[in-house]
């Protein structure tokens, strides 16, 4: 009995030490920052909140059906074979007047606008997990480029702190190439713990508008949640982003359930030349925090988007649907509603105003 108790106590101690001291879990919010966040309309009782009630069901029936679906399995939740990757076009001096975007799978994007290079949610790791050796692996196994090939990055723009969007290993590898980190409230603390100079971090609340070296940005609402550990649910803010250059304006949805914020953003900042809209890892049981694909199309229309690039799919399995369901459903709904959709391969660079890729490469 003593041996059993000692083992249990030892395991609890190890877990506690890992959760509190392993840097991958990020930082805890300081008292000073908590006091500052109390000025935010989106902060209440030491937590950030959504604009509207956003319940994430954890009742017995929901848990039972999720366990059932997990045990049942589905071989089509991951690709059965490899798929083609695009050839990344890194920024060149002669293309400074062009707006280009390269999608790296899931929600990671490289955006070139007005001669500046931005990375959006640059998750370049092998798995969206604090311990990638045991997480669900990236479909493509390798990225369509080597991180050493990345040019200097003018700004990294983050939507929230979940592992599939903010990756410890990726930040450690790219941080010395980044001139500025632009993040929602609280996320900067994680970056500081990982060695990013605090002077290179901007934190913003919803509806903040600001200029970054000639590019106009606005931190806009999303309907989601945050957290990297067992005790930090909603300790940091989540958001979407408006990014406007002199010739083009884009909208990056981050992660979000459908809600009235899309209409508000469209009324205030639309129309948009390009939208990057999440369309995958959905389920009716958690529709409050991840849109269904048909809602993705509606959200694109709400923000008054022109061309949509679906994101948050084709890299990791985080939902129970088949891996191609998101793009099949979103493109079907888009056709029915006369919405133009671009479907670049992972790593394929798209130039705004040129012919947009529409090949069904996933097939």
Describe what this molecule looks like in 3D.
This protein is α/β, with parallel strands linked by helices and 363 residues long. The chain has a single domain (75-351), classed as Ribonuclease Z/Hydroxyacylglutathione hydrolase-like (Metallo-beta-lactamase, Chain A), CATH 3.60.15. The protein has helices spanning 2-21, 31-37, 60-72, 168-174, 188-193, 261-269, 293-302, 325-336; strands at 43-44, 47-48, 100-103, 109-113, 116-120, 155-157, 181-184, 201-204, 209-212, 215-220, 240-244, 249-252, 272-278, 305-311, 340-341, 349-351. The strands form three sheets. Strands 8-7-6-5-4-3-16 form a seven-stranded mixed sheet. Strands 9-10-11-12-13-14-15 form a seven-stranded mixed sheet, with helices on one face. Strands 1-2 form a two-stranded antiparallel sheet. The radius of gyration is 20 Å and the shape is globular.
Key descriptive features of the protein:
NAPE-PLD, globular, 18% strand, zinc ion binding, Metallo-B-lactamas, 8 helices, alpha/beta, 16 strands, N-acylphosphatidylethanolamine-specific phospholipase D activity
Concise summary:
This protein has 363 residues and is an alpha/beta fold. The chain has helices spanning 2-21, 31-37, 60-72, 168-174, 188-193, 261-269, 293-302, 325-336; strands spanning 43-44, 47-48, 100-103, 109-113, 116-120, 155-157, 181-184, 201-204, 209-212, 215-220, 240-244, 249-252, 272-278, 305-311, 340-341, 349-351.
